[in-house]
Amino acid sequence: MKPAIGFPWSLVAATALVWLIAGCADERLAGGGTETGNAGAVSGRILDSDGHGLASALVDLEEVKTRSDGSEPGSRHATRTDGEGRYRFDSVQAGKYALYAPASDGLAQAAILTRLEKRDSLLSLPDAVSRRTVTLTGRVLPPVAGDSAGAQVCVPGMRACVSPGADGVWRIQQAPRGAYEILFLTGTSAHYLAVQVGAEADTAVYVRDVFLIDSAGPSRIPYRFYNLPQPLSFSMVPQTYPAGQEPAWYAGKSFADVKYFLLTDSGTGAVWNPDYLAGWKYARTLDGDSLYTGADLAQPLSGFPVPIRLTAANFDFSQARPDGGDLAFSDAAGHLLPFETERWDAAGKRAEIWVRVDTLAAANSERMLRMHWGNPAAPYRSDATQVFLAADGVLDAWHFNEEPSIAFVPDARGLFAGVVAGPPPEGGYPSLRTPEGVVGPALALGKSGDYVHVPWRAALDVSTAFTVSIWARLDQPDNGRKQLLASKWQTASREWHLDIYSDRTFEIEFGDAVGNIQGNWRSTAPVPSPGAWHQYAAVYDKGVVKLYLDGLEAAGALASGSIPAAVNRFNADVNIGSNSIDTTLNLQGNLDECRIYSTAKSGDWMNMDYRTQKTRP
């Protein structure tokens, strides 16, 4: 297949695959194209999953490059390892290469960016370890128009390209574990889907469906690129419709008037036009106080997630698909908005959906979005990873909407899931109950010392600013001890924890470099009725702390010590409902909607966060 666009495979290979080979950041590895006569040798070693040299393993070194029409393959070198797992390639021209080594127990693969200069006759690569592989399978939904029959699904650098079957299902064997991207190609477009395959994954992994809304032909569509994983330039793509070939909805518009989406972070390719949402039978405008009760803001809020609650009183569930898969949301201009369906219970006639708005208007009268439903052919678009974004300062969000039999606690971003820790309750797990919370189901922590443990990841660390918020309802607020809401706090790894005292004041506490308590900032007034739902939050900004209760700043004071100008970072885990050290301080009660941000959120944000989530009267 020859894609109609010039696709830069080299950039994809250098960024999309698992980096099992590290240490490629010196000036020899600056990239660049092939230079005649500028050749060298590349050597390294392949290890099996136990760390031993892998003998007689086939090793491919494939250059990843194409001409603008996608037709030119790169050069390929192949050899086998010796008894100690070593390999060597001679006469390798400068360029960008993917290393690939299939083995009986797995696959060793790396994206390497190499430029062999004349003074560098030999490039020695670090060991590559063979990883157990999986079979990837998924489904592509056919484009509205375009060359669907010629579609291909590829893992760049692996030389693995397959064509979907008549049912749209595709399979790629021996795919690596780790983080990389899958590429979906049609005759007129390219689409990405980021994939993470963990070490604990089974032998087969189902990849989410990819809906390819395509162009009407390579000469008829002006592409604009939105939210690409890396900057790309497609100079071969036409910028306007040829005269006389414009669709009806395009008449009278310029290129700048129409916003196209070739692909998004989730891998969904879409071409938007004003008629796109006409396929949905029903629509409703949600605006002002019908969206949520709220006064004007000092200034607009960017990237704000709005919860939408549906009940029998405000929504006819018989008009939508039984799984709620035909929902869509749009802004005032008709552009699709990302959303996550936290719960869809058609039988019980209740649902909760989170919709991310690019800009939440400052004036209440200017806030508006539209909900669409009633399209049997609509793709299922719920995707939490597109609602809670790192770009909006979200480190992570936990809804606590798990089924009672599951001790695994997923997170909205799909990166920092937790597990129920602590002593198993009588009779063993399940220990998670799901009473009705503030938004959908909630987490119930019992009296057996259980809590949610989220293992440390570097991306969860903060230094100079962060915000933490959580809803809580205490079973025994006056039990003579403090109770933990959320923390990054372990033995000799004390960073911060948020808790409420038996006198009903609450605080955030910080630890020092040797594991001692460094300082406490504590509210000066008691929380009214802590046995009812309240949103507790703390905002930290370069040593300045603000506490928030139900969206309003709570008066506070330094209770002891001092507040550090930067958070001490000790690779502490996140523990929700505990500090993991003293389980007698674990929370007894219910928790809902925990958020941790990498920024100090404004008072307007905190107030709107509470007002949109609170239970309506």
Fold topology:
Blueprint: H1 9-16, E1 39-47, E2 58-63, E3 76-80, E4 86-93, E5 95-103, E6 106-114, E7 122-124, E8 128-129, E9 134-141, E10 152-155, E11 160-162, E12 169-175, E13 178-185, E14 190-197, E15 204-206, E16 210-211, E17 282-287, H2 288-291, E18 301-311, E19 328-330, E20 339-345, E21 350-360, E22 368-373, E23 394-398, E24 408-409, E25 418-421, E26 443-445, E27 451-454, E28 465-474, E29 483-490, E30 493-500, E31 506-511, E32 517-523, E33 534-541, E34 544-549, E35 552-554, E36 556-561, E37 574-576, E38 589-597, H3 603-613
Parallel strand pairs: 1-7, 1-8, 9-15, 9-16
Antiparallel strand pairs: 1-4, 2-3, 2-5, 5-6, 9-12, 10-11, 10-13, 13-14, 17-22, 18-21, 19-22, 20-21, 23-38, 24-25, 25-27, 26-38, 27-37, 28-33, 28-38, 29-30, 29-37, 30-31, 31-32, 32-36, 33-34, 34-35
Molecular shape: globular
Gyration radius from CA atoms, angstroms: 27 Å
Judging by the overall fold, what is the CATH architecture of the largest domain? Sandwich
Total helices: the number is 3
Strand order of the largest sheet: 24-25-27-37-29-30-31-32-36
Distance between the termini: 59 Å
Main CATH class of the largest domain: Mainly Beta
Beta strand %: 35-45%
| Number of strand elements | 38
Instruction: Give the tally of structural domains.
Output: 4
* CATH fold-level topology of the largest domain: Jelly Rolls
Q: How helical, in percent, are the residues?
A: under 10%
Mean pLDDT: 74
Largest sheet: 9 strands, antiparallel
Pick out the low-confidence regions. 1-37, 66-71, 110-119, 143-147, 214-241, 255-274
Content-based structural category: mainly beta
